[in-house]
Fold this protein.
Amino acid sequence: MKIYSLIITSLFSIFSYAQIQDFKSINFEKADNIALVNKGENLYNLPDLTYKLTDGLTTDVEKFRAIYVWVCQNIANDYGLYHLNKSKRERFKNDSIKFNAWTTKFRKKLFKKLLNNKRTICTGYAYMLKTLCDLADLECEIIQGYGRVSTTNIENLELPNHSWNAIKLNGKWYLCDPTWASGIPDPETNNFTYNYNDGFFLANPKLFAINHFPIDHKWWLLDDEVPTFRAFLASPIIYGSAYKHLDQHGKPKQMHHVLKKGEALIFEYLTKTTLKKSDVRFYIDSGYNQWKTEPTSQVISGKTLLLKHQFKSKGYFDVHLYLKENLIATYTVEVK
């Protein structure tokens, strides 16, 4: 019991980090409605757009909210543009002259498409968010670094591949990712589906750190030791739904695990709402069969979720955690 109490205490300590919980007394309904009313506005007069989005809002966080939601719900993620830039950067990575020439050329192409078609990649999202914030006299920065999703080839992750933002509110910095919050591009058709994910708005830095690695270490916004790049690459895969359901991913710290038959793997999370045991499921894939199962044991104490799962047969397994039928994280387990 003493050990379990220490686990709960350590997980709840993460609330000291800057995140949306700092503004739990703020009702964002007015800001969200303003963003909705201005849906479809173009980008040809940004000062006018900024005025429309912030007029009548009295707090900086509400002004930022209206700008952020509008950007996420009105600018599409262009996977074709992303793939073009990625292939060229990898092709020229060992030739600084060609690399810089391509970067200059692509930047012009990127912002032309953003302005005329409201389609872009992460750089454009981060730039547009900062530009509108600057016009609203809000302090916002663009953060360059590495982002990990389920399709990221970590063995070839040599160049920074993602951009996001930090916003200063009431003297504190907060993290957000307008690109990943906006929706889902189809890699095969390049069609984009708007599907706003509020979990990336003023996200918990501890959760953010699992799949965001800033080049400038000050943008971790962590009070404790920041992860190494090796630890970042070894982290579990977490999905967009993790930001909807989790405040913190405690354990396991790594994606890959080697266990003995009958040995248990421990999972620790801090959730945004209190769950029921029926909300928690594992989907396990052995490469030959897939099945849904409950954890071997689970303890729910308020918003703390502690799971254990034992593997009774040898093999290699993909373990997918679902909360309320939403895919949260993936781990791999080799049982010897």
